[in-house]
Structures are given as structure tokens and as C-alpha cells.
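Weekly structure sync, notes
Attendees: PL (lead), two postdocs, one rotation student
Agenda item 3: pending single-chain targets
PL asked that the sequence for the first pending target be pasted directly into the notes so everyone works from the same version. It is reproduced below exactly as submitted, 247 residues in total.
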Amino acid sequence: MKQFKNKTIELIYSIFIIFIAVFSVALVGLDYLGVINIYHGFIGTVYYAIWIFYILDYITGFCLAKNHKQFLLETSLDLISLIPAHPIFVIFRLYRVIRIVRHYNLFWKFGWDGKVTGGIHRFIYDTGFIYLFSISIVILIFSALIYSHFEQHNLSTSLWWAITTATTVGYGDISPQTAGGKLIAAFLMFGGIGFIGLLTSTITDFFTHGDKDVTDDKIDQLSKQIEALTAEVHSLQKSVKKNNTPK
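Predicted structure, written out during the meeting:
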């Protein structure tokens, strides 16, 4: 998240980012329902102005970041939201809202932080799930974009092909015919399947060992309490013996 010297300005900027993220997603939703057209007129101008603003914001954040590699990992979904090929990518701007909420610890401040939010935080961040998920999404989307260019399919069809290929489902309803399409397919079969496999194993490992870790913590706490009670009992026994000793 972009840092400002003035905390008030930082808060106002964060609120503005949340507003335009939700607003742009709402525009896409209304366009999908046929209520408005985001490509023409005043609404189209606003839609593209927000897109340009997000591009400038991302570039500025990247230039100001102390660790560029870490920045790219943490904002990979933000980068996807900048893809102009299809308005569906605008939905990924909501991830920026989640990062802002997490930055200000709003769940904790509103008293919503507990076992559920703690478990979600451990699952998403401590396991590295968010990074694997982001990389997997990036691979799928860019593979679909390149595939659609070579095979002359629309983006939704190409995304369907990329997902079925990376997950090894491969219905066979769509197959590459050009050399470029086959090259992308080969890359997705090796790279995509590898990341999807890591993603799946991360989820499985969390639910397999997550409860065990919680149980171990509880056992450690109980052991410490038992040790403290035992020490207190021994102290009381010594006091009783001392008081009962004939003078």
C-alpha cells in the first residue's frame, strides 16, 4: 500500500481508492445487465479515466516500493485488474479494497476479529496461498490472452480452454491448431499444472494439519496451566507442613 507522510492524506486517498474500486465494479455489473454502456458517452469517459488512474497509481506504487519483487507479488491481482481486454478483470480491483481493510485492521477495530477471521488470515497469508493463487491467475489469464491471439477465439472461450488445460480436465472441445497456440498449450501444461498442483496441495495441507496445529497449541496451554497449578499445590503443602510442625 502506498505510504504518505501525512496520515490524514493517506486515509483520504485510501477511501477514494475504495470508492472508485467499488464504483468501477458497479459500472461493469450494470453494463453486464444491459442498463448502461461503459464504452460510450460520459460513462465511457469515466470508465477509462478510472482505468488510467489505476495504471498511474500502480506505476507510482512500483517506483516508490522499497522491494519491487515483494510489491509485484503482493499486487499481482491489482495488475490483472489493469488488463483492458475484458471488463471482467475490473472485479480484481476489489482485492485492493481487501488490502486496505487489512492495512487499517478494520475487522479488529470493529470487533469482528476472532477465530473465523484469524483462520482466514492464516489460510490466505501464512500458508502463502494468496501468492500461489495470484501467480496461477496470472498464468491462466496471460495464456488465454496469447492463445486467443493465435487461435482467433474470444477471451471467454480462451479462458475456458486455459482452465480446462491447467486443471488437466481437457474436454477436447477446444484444441490449438496453430504453432503459437500449441506452444502456449505446452507451457500451460507444464507451468500451469505445476502451480495449480501447489495450490491444491497448500489447501489440502492446511485443512489436514491446520486443526492439528490448533490442538497442539491448546495442549501446550493446558500443560503450562497444569504446571502452574502443580507448583501452587506444592507451595500450599509446604505451608501446611510448616504450620503443623510443633514448635
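Discussion points:
- The first helix runs from residue 7 to 32.
- The CA atoms of residues 3 and 10 lie 7 Å apart.
Action: rotation student to compare against the earlier draft before next sync.
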